[in-house]
Amino acid sequence: MMNDDVAVIALLRRLDDADHPTGPREYDEQAISAMLDRLVSRLEADFATRCPAQRYHRNTVEYARVVVPGEATVCGERIVVSVSNFGSLAMVAAENPGAYLGTDDAREEGALDLGDLATVERALTDTGYVVVSEELLHTRYDRPAPLRTDARWPATWWDRYFGHP
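The chain above was modelled as a monomer; its predicted structure follows.
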């Protein structure tokens, strides 16, 4: 595990509050919305195209998804940024979350350009987000928040911060 992953796991554990499964105790819709608007503007400027954002209702932990259209990427595959209700958490996927095993797999399969990924990650960090890798999010969740699970599929950090409680 890389040092960055250790720091991100520590952050995920710090944010984890069993009494607040869908958002942080100090949930601030206006602040999260404004942060997302800044991200969308930045991605649109960086990729010179419209990047639509779909905002979700509070019955999911995922706050929104922003799409960089495939026509604007080197590989021709869209890039999807998922933003959590836990304001500063975001993850990047080629095509859709779960379409590949993560960004490394997407790059190896020719679906994600390293430069495009760096542009998206830079936009995220510059607008205040913490990038959580899809690979890390698919590791087992072993904390106290009550998550809906199927006995065949143990809960993951994805379920906790981007899924349905």
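Residues 44 and 83 are 16 Å apart (CA to CA).
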